Amino acid sequence: xxxxxxxxxxxxxxxxxxxxxxxxxxxxxxxxxxxxxxxxxxxxxxxxxxxxxxxxxxxxxxxxxxxxxxxxxxxxxxxxxxxxxxxxxxxxxxxxxxxxxxxxxxxxxxxxxxxxxxxxxxxxxxxxxxxxxxxxxxxxxxxxxxxxxxxxxxxxxxxxxxxxxxxxxxxxxxxxxxxxxxxxxxxxxxxxxxxxxxxxxxxxxxxxxxxxxxxxxxxxxxxxxxx
Length: 227
Fold this sequence. Notes:
The chain is an alpha/beta fold. It has helices spanning 10-22, 33-40, 59-68, 84-93, 105-117, 154-165, 173-181, 190-205; strands spanning 2-6, 26-30, 47-51, 75-79, 97-100, 126-129, 132-135, 140-143, 149-151, 210-215, 219-224.
C-alpha cells in the first residue's frame, strides 16, 4: 500500500515515514501544500496523510481541490488543534478521518488500517473484475469461470491491483511506473512493459477472458472480453 504524507515539520515527517516503512507501507513525503497537491492528483496513492498547517497551501484546501478533481483517495488529516470547528471544516472539505497531535503511533496505524479497508471491494478481502478475482491477503489470482488460480509476484500483484482499482480508465506507463516503483526510483519505463508481460501470462495461465490491453500512445487498461 502506498501512502502520501504531507507534513512541513521535516523531523516529524521523517519519523512518521520511518514508522510507516517499518509497517511495510511505501511512503512518499512532501513538505509543502503545492507539492502535496500535485502528488495527490497523480492518483497513485491508496491513502493520504495531510497536515492542516502547511506552507503554500493548507491541508483543507488540498482536500477540497482533490475532491473537486474527483480524486477519492481516503484522507487522514493531522492537526495540532483539537477544536471541534477545525475537525468539522476538515470533514466538510472531504477528509475521511482526523487525528490530533500529539498522537500515539498505534492509533495512527489503526486509523490507516481502517481507511485501507474501505478500498477493499468485498468482505472476504478480494478485488474483482470481469471473470477474475484477486485475493489481497495471499496475492492469488483466480479465474471465477473455471476455478484456476495462481500466485502472483509482488510487482504482478500490484500492477493488477492498480488496474482493477482503476477499471474503466487508461493508466499511462508513467502512472504505473510511479505507482509500482515510486517517485524517487530510477526504474525505466521498459520495466513496466516487462512486468506487464508477466502479468498477462498469469491471466492467460488461469484461462481468464479478462485481458490487459495496450492503448497506443496512452497506456494500459483492463478489459473483459466475454465472447
